[in-house]
Write a structure and sequence with these properties.
Helix content: 10-25%
Number of helices: 6
Bound molecules: zinc ion
Strand content: 25-35%
Radius of gyration: 16 Å
Strand order of the largest sheet: 6-7-8-9-10-11-12
CATH topology: Metallo-beta-lactamase, Chain A
CATH class: Alpha Beta
Distance between the termini: 14 Å
């Protein structure tokens, strides 16, 4: 199973989990055409798309999937009775509530080829602890230390998104011998430093750590490298 980043951050989020026959899309925040091109126009591989919340950088293009008959999982539409779990192809997906300024959900995803994975963005923190995770995809938006004390938008920046120390605590609490990969998501253009964030995360866990950027590909294998 391969993880691919087609966009991460406030300009548009989209990640795919892909094997030979199936693709699960996480977030519909980049144009559908970019996803089609990434899949060599083989869109029949897409078994579904899961979307965390209604903000444009995550949900702007969800209608394009619906128009093309792709099943969409949008638990944030709380006005519509929606089950909190769904199976798309070989992917088993469960939604869990996050802490953002609009209803927002993270996803616990399992597949026989990759084991278990948690995806969480955008959120101030995660209330839950998970057993035996194999992969963690987690927002690591900013560092308090990188925001100037006098920044006029300081409190706005610090609301609804995950600070480095909070992400590190989540990694420490969910670290386990079967953890294989960590990808840090949705970094702020101004208030983050991918190199420092990755180095800090590597001190919290014993597995490989990446910063999500357009074009990143990670093999989500279950066995050790
Ligand atoms: Zn958001």
């Amino acid at each position: 199973m391969k993880f691919r980043c087609l966009g991460s951050g406030s300009s548009g989020n989209c990640y795919i989990l892909e094997n030979d026959s199936e693709v699960l899309v996480i977030e519909a925040g980049v144009p559908f055409m970019i996803v089609k091109k990434a899949l060599d126009f083989n869109i029949s591989k897409i078994v579904g798309v899961v979307v965390s919340h209604s903000h444009g950088d995550h949900a702007k293009y969800v209608r394009d999937y619906e128009r093309n008959g792709v099943p969409t999982f949008k638990p944030y539409r709380e006005e519509i009775a929606c089950p909190l779990s769904v199976n798309y192809g070989g992917f088993r997906i469960k939604g869990f509530r996050l802490v953002h300024d609009v209803p927002c959900y993270g996803f616990y995803i399992s597949h026989v080829e990759m084991g278990t994975l948690v995806y969480a963005s955008d959120t101030e923190y995660i209330k839950y602890r998970f057993q035996n995770l194999n992969h963690i995809l987690i927002e690591c938006n900013y560092s308090r230390e990188l925001i100037p004390e006098d920044a006029v938008n300081r409190s706005h920046v610090m609301t609804g998104h995950m600070e480095l120390q909070t992400a590190l605590e989540f990694l420490l609490v969910n670290n386990n011998p079967n953890l294989r990969s960590v990808v840090l998501l949705h970094m702020s253009a101004r208030n983050s430093d991918p190199e420092i964030f990755v180095a800090e995360a590597k001190r919290a866990v014993q597995c490989s750590v990446w910063a999500a950027e357009k074009g990143l590909e990670v093999d989500l294998r279950l066995m050790s490298f």
